[in-house]
Design brief:
With 265 residues, this protein is an alpha/beta fold. It has a single domain, classed as P-loop containing nucleotide triphosphate hydrolases (Rossmann fold, 3-Layer(aba) Sandwich), CATH 3.40.50.300. The chain has helices at residues 60-67, 107-111, 121-134, 150-163, 180-197, 208-214, 246-258; strands at residues 4-13, 34-44, 49-53, 75-80, 83-84, 93-97, 168-172, 200-205, 217-221, 228-233. A six-stranded mixed β-sheet has the order 6-7-8-3-9-10, with helices on both faces. The protein has a four-stranded antiparallel β-sheet with strand order 2-1-4-5, with helices on one face. Bound molecules: adenosine-5'-diphosphate (ADP) and magnesium ion. Adenosine-5'-diphosphate (ADP) is lined by residues 13, 34, 36, 54, 56-62, 224.
Amino acid sequence: MSHIQIDNLTKIYVGRRTQPRTMHDPEEHSGDNVLVLNNINLAFEEGEMVCILGPSGCGKSTLLRIIAGFEAPTYGTVKVGGRKVRGPSDQSIFVFQHSGLYPWMTVYENVGLGLRHIDDEEDKHSRIQEHVEMVELEGFEHYYPHQLSGGMQRRAELARAIAVNPDLLIMDEPFSGLDFLTHMKMREEVVNMHEFLRKTTLVVTHDIDDALIMGDRIVVLSGRPSAIKLVHVLDFPRPRNFEKDPGLSRLRSEIFLMLGVPYAV
Ligand SMILES: Nc1ncnc2c1ncn2[C@@H]1O[C@H](COP(=O)(O)OP(=O)(O)O)[C@@H](O)[C@H]1O
Ligand SMILES: [Mg+2]
């Protein structure tokens, strides 16, 4: 059984428009309905890291929100661990996303957010400390988010997500807004963390290089209404390097072409 099974998933956002745009608006009776995901069938296996690529606005975040149970499918089903997703799951899923830290809480408090249910203070403290150290933030436990660099904030978010020991880690554009070097370093840390923890991890990105360097598999979505364009296993050895691996750079060129940007090749 796959960890996540997506069958015939379609998502239509229903618009609220009541006034027709023109007298003879052909869409008059459909309002502003937007077909975002069009009959998606996918399965994600236990422990794999899958990178989902697609142009902006194609529905990547929508797909993640549906898997996480924050949004309902219009048609079709999503099952996690064999059970149909009916709403957000508190323990098994944690969404790691940009600017998710609470500004009024310290690094220590933010990392401990998902551990409030642990009564044993000593146990809780060591879990927090272990994860603070894992992302190399020791010494910064009592800093507030605004006192940290962008990369440190992102590492604190990662520690918070992993501290709850989720079965599934969902990341929506985890490196957006980071400077180049921090982006590279963070990417490497997420790869190392995945090698170590082997949690099922879904990473949405619009960065082809991120997807090819990180993923055990990639899924490429077309523009809206999104359908699956490509599912590809990446069995290139790690650490991956475009210069040293001609197969990897060939695949990168093919995906650029597929996404309609031949000039980037
Ligand atoms: N809550 C919503 N209500 C209506 N339309 C939405 C909503 N969320 C997203 N959309 C629309 O759905 C499309 C896909 O959005 P999104 O999933 O955020 O794309 P991506 O993450 O790939 O950039 C966009 O056209 C967006 O405007
Ligand atoms: Mg998005």
